[in-house]
Amino acid sequence: MTTLTAPRSWDEFMEGVWRQNPLFVMVLGMCPALAVTVSAVNALSMGLATTFVLTCSCLLVSLLRKLIPKEVRIAVYIVIIATFVTVVDYAIQAISLALYDALGAFIQLIVVNCIILGRAEAHASKNPPLPAVINALGMSAGFTLGLFALGSVREILGAGTLFGVSLFGPNFQPWVVMLLPPGGFFVLGAWLLLFSWWARRGLGKPVKEAVEHV
């Protein structure tokens, strides 16, 4: 049975957080990233929902990887993902109808999120449960951080609040465009530029070196 040492586990986790961040490196999951990130709460909620679906799906795919026929593997993966999406869908309805209405159809659309299906096909189907879960958690953390980065900036500039708490007082003039679709593209472009500059300047190198020397 394959096991992971602490350095390898950390490296596997950080792969999705930094070196292959779903939003800022692979530029995946753009539909929910641009549509629901009008506030930090919406961004974190979508990130946590995706984390649950991705982690549980990859775990189950890994456990069943030797039993799933290759000819129908994609269909089976979609059924597995859809099952956990249904669980999340009903859970959010039970917790908060306002949040459910804010996220809208994008909860159900987690089923076709290419990050989840891609992890199931490229990693979970080829690895034991522990590496699959660690990789899924890393990708989920990277996706959630990306959503929060977009949602927090858009809420701060577009409403002058963060998690609904006023930051600038009554005299602040909100940048309404940040709460509209163009604002999502502006903020995403700015984060992509910053992330690219950060990587080219080598500021991410210490993270990799720290992993290698643990």
Structure explained in plain terms:
The protein is an all-alpha fold. The protein has one domain (20-212). It contains 9 helices and 2 strands. It has helices at 6-19, 30-35, 40-63, 73-95, 97-103, 114-122, 129-159, 181-200, 205-212; strands at residues 161-162, 165-166. A two-stranded antiparallel ribbon has the order 1-2. A hairpin with a 2-residue loop joins strand 1 and strand 2. Helix 4 (73-95) crosses helix 6 (114-122). The longest helix is centred in the C-terminal third of the chain and has 31 residues, at 129-159. It starts with 5 loop residues before the first helix and ends with a helix. Residues 206-214 have low confidence and may be disordered.
Topology:
Layout: H1 6-19, H2 30-35, H3 40-63, H4 73-95, H5 97-103, H6 114-122, H7 129-159, E1 161-162, E2 165-166, H8 181-200, H9 205-212
Antiparallel strand pairs: 1-2
Helix pairs in contact: 1-7, 3-4, 3-6, 3-7, 4-6, 7-8
Which structural category fits the helices and strands?
mainly alpha
The description of the largest β-sheet is:
2 strands, antiparallel
Distance between the termini: 23 Å
Q: Report the principal-axis shape.
A: globular
- Strand fraction equals under 5%
Strand order in space, largest sheet: 1-2
Summarize model confidence as the mean pLDDT: 86
Whole-number radius of gyration?
Answer: 18 Å
Main traits of this protein?
214 residues; mainly alpha; two-stranded antiparallel ribbon; 9 helices; 2 strands; disordered C terminus
